[in-house]
Specification:
This protein is 61% helix and 9% strand. The chain is an alpha+beta fold. The strands form two sheets. The chain has a five-stranded mixed beta sheet, covered by helices on one side. Helix 2 runs antiparallel to helix 3, helix 4 runs antiparallel to helix 5 and helix 7 packs parallel to helix 11.
Length: 478
């Protein structure tokens, strides 16, 4: 057990695998300024120490030697971050030589030594070498203290000791006091240096984790956009494929009736022309979105894919506005109280718009189930003159307070909504309501002249009402 604790303590001190970055230019400039400040303050400290020494009758060294000593102590501190071990060894050697030569105890010298020991613990990039270098210096200091007390002998005692001694003898008390003071001194320099290095390591790890998290979020966002665009591309492919198949049927019908009924052939060829225009419009909208490389800087987590949908839905049977009531019923079966309303006069809408409206309602209701903690939802479908608008509001937590239910995976639902609306040149508004809850409102244009013409779901080619000719074409197709 003791061995494991020692190993754990050693690993915390060394911590392989991380090297503290080298000091910045600003930090090096700070060291220069601090050394200059040391050169300003140290002479005053030397004057105080000399005054005390002279009061006890000690011989003072020449002031030129003291000036050189101050420079030798302070100058290595300019490199305390870049070469901490070398700086500490130089300062410790100068400190010991000054003590051996009889220089008075100087507060500036103690500060310089403490500073160098601290820097080794805080900045050394070689942790094992830093540990043993500090052990070497501290051990040397205590050996010097022991030798000094042995050589000084009774000289360390007061000149006029009291006749009634305390619990300890004067000599023992003096030695013990010096040893304890130095233990606290060296332990503090070692502790604070190690704490500084540990703090820097943690900050570096947090910065790396934040960068990795940001990169992961960016990658997830890009994947979500790519996944949603591919999904849209597949669905629009079905829409365009539908138009192309209609063109084939109409062209075949026109060829068959060209000799017998030129009027019916002309109608069929007009239908081919209008349907081709719709297909071109869909393809242009798709290519415009897929070529757009604008950054997605407003990602809002939503459902990771659609959780609601009509039974048996598949890519080859794309749903539309007609399936929205069934979707609402499915959400009600999951526990929501939904009020569904249709406003305006229902009419056929383009196939791509119909599909996008269904998907937007689907994603919005899924998000309410997963994240909003709502009980009441309103779904409103509005048929305007040149557009169709769908609005979903709830009484849940809004945007800031939404949290996923247990087991719900995070996603990017609003990204998909924005991509779908962008395909058709519509408008999307999402956000919390003033009265509480959340709102999703999408307005998609349906005007044929504005979008180049599309065939609506259940509409004849060109957006006109079905005619007897269309019924005959449909019967031929069957």
């Amino acid at each position: 057990m003791l061995t494991e604790r020692v190993r754990g303590w050693w690993r915390r001190i060394v911590v392989p695998g991380w090297v503290r970055p080298r000091p910045t230019a600003a930090q090096r400039r700070t060291d220069v300024l601090l050394v200059v400040l040391f050169f300003v303050v140290a002479p005053f400290s030397a004057v105080v120490a000399d005054s005390l020494a002279s009061a006890f009758g000690r011989t003072l060294p020449d002031w030129r030697w003291q000036a050189l000593w101050i420079v030798a102590l302070g100058l290595p501190l300019m490199w305390r971050r870049r070469f901490p071990i070398s700086s500490m060894l130089v300062v410790a050697a100068v400190f010991l030589l000054s003590q051996w030569a009889g220089f008075p105890d100087n507060l500036a010298a103690s500060v310089a030594l403490f500073w160098s020991l601290y820097s080794v613990g805080a900045w050394s990039r070689h942790r094992v070498a830093a540990f043993w270098a500090r052990v070497f210096v501290v051990a040397g200091m205590f050996v010097f203290i022991a030798v000094s007390f042995v050589l000084a002998g009774a000289d360390v005692l007061p000149d006029n000791p009291q006749t009634q001694p305390g619990p300890l003898s004067a000599y023992a008390a003096t030695v013990l006091n010096s040893v304890l003071a130095n233990v606290v001194y060296f332990a503090a320099s070692t502790y604070f240096g190690t704490v500084s290095w540990t703090s820097a390591r943690r900050e570096s790890q947090l910065a790396d984790q934040a960068a990795a998290l940001e990169a992961a979020q960016r990658e997830n966002a890009e994947r979500a956009v790519t996944r949603e665009r591919l999904h849209i591309a597949r669905e629009l492919h079905d829409v365009v494929a539908h138009h192309v198949s209609v063109m084939g049927v109409q062209a075949s019908a026109a060829r068959r009736v060209l000799g017998r009924s030129p009027e019916l052939a002309s109608d069929a060829l007009s239908a081919v022309e209008n349907t081709a225009r719709v297909a071109i419009t869909e393809l242009r909208a798709l290519l415009g979105v897929l070529r757009d490389e604008a950054p997605t800087d407003e990602l809002t987590p939503g459902g990771a894919g659609t959780a609601l949908g009509p039974a048996g839905e598949s890519l080859h049977a794309a749903p539309g506005v007609e399936q929205i009531p069934a979707l609402v019923g499915q959400a009600e079966g999951a526990g929501l109280q939904i009020r569904f309303g249709v406003f305006g006069t229902p009419r056929p809408v383009p196939a791509g718009v119909s599909l996008s409206l269904f998907r937007i309602v689907q994603e919005a209701l899924t998000n309410v189930l997963k994240h909003a903690s709502a009980t009441n939802v309103e779904v409103r479908l509005r048929y305007r003159d040149v557009s169709v608008e769908v609005e979903i509001t709830d009484d849940g937590l809004g945007a800031a307070g939404r949290t996923a239910r247990p087991g719900a995976a995070p996603g990017y639902g609003l990204v998909g909504m924005r991509e779908r609306v962008a395909v058709h040149g519509g408008e999307l508004v999402t956000g919390p309501r003033d009265t509480g809850g959340f709102r999703v409102r999408a307005d998609l244009p349906t005007d044929v002249s504005r979008r180049g013409g599309e065939r609506g779901v259940g509409a004849a080619p060109g957006g006109r009402p079905p005619t007897e000719h269309d019924e005959r074409i449909e019967a031929f197709h069957e």
